[in-house]
Amino acid sequence: MPQQTQQPQYRRTGSNGASDSAGEQPAVIEPRAPTPAMYWSQKKAWGTKPPKVRSQTLNAIGSHIYVFGGWNNSVCYNDVYVLDTEAMFWSRMRTTGDQVPPCRAHTSTAVGHRLFVFGGGDGTQYFSDLYVLDTKSCVWTRARVTGASPSSRRTHTCFHYNGYVYLFGGGDGHRALNDLWRVRAEPNASGAYEWEEVETSGGRPFPRGYHTSTLVGNQVVVFGGSDGQECFGDTSLLNLDTMEWTHVSIDPPLTRLAHTATLVGMYLFVICGHDGSDYSNQVLMLKLDTLRWETRTIYGSAPAPRGYHACTLHDGRLFLHGGYNGQEVFDDLYTLDLSSYSYLPQVPEFVIGCHR
Fold first, then answer.
1. Which of 101, 110, 246, 255 would give a disulfide with 233, using CB separation of 3.0 to 4.6 Å?
2. Side by side, which strands form the sheet with 164-171?
């Protein structure tokens, strides 16, 4: 499904930015998007910015965005970079506490002011440790866990719901996985975190990594990914109250891996990724009440096609950072200004597929 394009409108301005008239400097033609339109822009931020990186994580907490880990095809990182979105200023967080190994293709899940980081790897290593970063005190803690816990993996997904951090899928270097686990976001009386494997009905999705799992009310939407052989375009829903899977068909089926999927109102914004043949910079919108794909005209300068990037929603904008296009690792930062779509989170509750 090609991205819709449209010739932008223009306005004539003099050197002082005012409308051109007799006696002023020669006019400059600059593009102007219609007021309700979405708009891409590459952002300039000051300070100590992250290096070129892929397979990192990006989390918004308050007015700050946290980048952790990733690699540049040679070196893995364990640094935390913080973007002050009001000042557009990067800084490298000085952390204390337990030492976190450099890693990529891990998950980082925001729970209040804490980040729960699980798994990932470096080179041939795959990790199964859970670390918690307190973003207020800047202290890392390696979580002490009791009982059974997920196997070592990367390219999995995690999300927070009703006091638990859930984990689905990924790969362990030998095979793709489709198991579901959860851990309480608060330690027990002895200070340990408790993992448990979750039994489900309805048939689990095929094993996969590089997919997305997006929380929508009491359901999670699992889309795309790969088992190392095939790029998937299927969509599955898990009701987290009944623990029942439902598999939905969406026409046309659009394949994606190493993409991002962010909830904005009743739309799932699927951005960039690989379609099994090439990298993309498309913005696809899955309308969740109809389960139909839509596109919109987007103005500005879009990021280059890529996957393995990171994306988060903050203050009416989608922030996109880094990634890889098969040849180059990026360190750029883009925002997609949602314009009138930024009001979508205020829509009343809806049922996925209710108007299908």
1. 255
2. 145-146, 193-197, 176-184, 164-171, 157-161
